[in-house]
Amino acid sequence: MDIKVGDLVGRKSYNYDIVFRVHDIIRQNDKIVIVLKGMNLRIIADAPESDVVKLPASKINENIKNYDDRAKKLMRKLEKRSGKATNKLSAGFYRNEGQVFRRPGKVLHIDGDKNYLDMCMKSYKELNIEAVGRVVAESEQPKAVNALLLEYTPDILVLTGHDAYIKPQQTASPEQQRRELNTISNYKNSKYYMESVKLARKYEPSLDDLVIFAGACQSYFEGIMEAGANFASSPERVLIHALDPVMVCEKIALTPIDQIVPLKEILTGTITGLNGVGGVQTRGKYRDGMPKSLYSKV
Known about the structure:
Blueprint: E1 8-11, E2 20-28, E3 31-38, E4 44-48, E5 52-54, H1 57-90, E6 101-103, E7 107-111, H2 114-126, E8 131-135, H3 141-152, E9 156-160, H4 174-181, H5 190-203, E10 211-214, H6 221-227, E11 231-232, H7 244-253, H8 263-268, E12 278-279, E13 287-289
Parallel strand pairs: 7-8, 7-9, 9-10, 10-11
Antiparallel strand pairs: 1-2, 1-5, 2-3, 3-4, 6-13, 11-12
């Protein structure tokens, strides 16, 4: 076998639609199972060795470019919007804007994938949003979330990584399909996101005092929302982009505390859109303050 951990591959059975990185190779009796994680999409999958093929550089570059172009376009839009927002928020309220200091919401981002977390942290920095990132495996997030909340006291909590919905092999009736979609054991990691959200809600029950985004590709949206999240993936069990949580956090962090975040605007402003991210009405986390200290660092 010429497939190694770290290789970029595709699946023949899906016509190489997604570029994966080989995460693990498991030997089960006389079979080899390849564990795959999406390069740009927050999906984890298993595939038999016979279905996994190394991709040529041209295919990898094309896929990465497509997602990078979409992400960069949205990031430019967000950077422009965030710049306008922070300038506009104070305008008209204070005679001397130089006396005003600004405080966007603070983010604690817990991610099961270091590469994705690095992408998100870079984006938070570009958007001038204070964020702390910690890499914690999905299965370990319920054990870590309370201590991290106590340590960093964020306004916004992100719980994400990888996930996948395991479809039944046989075609099901509509009623059976509904039951399958609402069976937590059919999801790779949704149970960990749900448990983490429930624990975070014990720490802070108010949906406005602690805003929570949770989930990944094809996650159990209804279960995560019921657990207490403000925003979650994935209503239509579609794949979501690595930067979708950042898009949600940006709008929350820069919407004033006395305003409700425009729900449709925040959801359609993600890379995946309404099929990939849903949520409930939530107050913003941005605050103006005054006077600005002469000894302020910024």
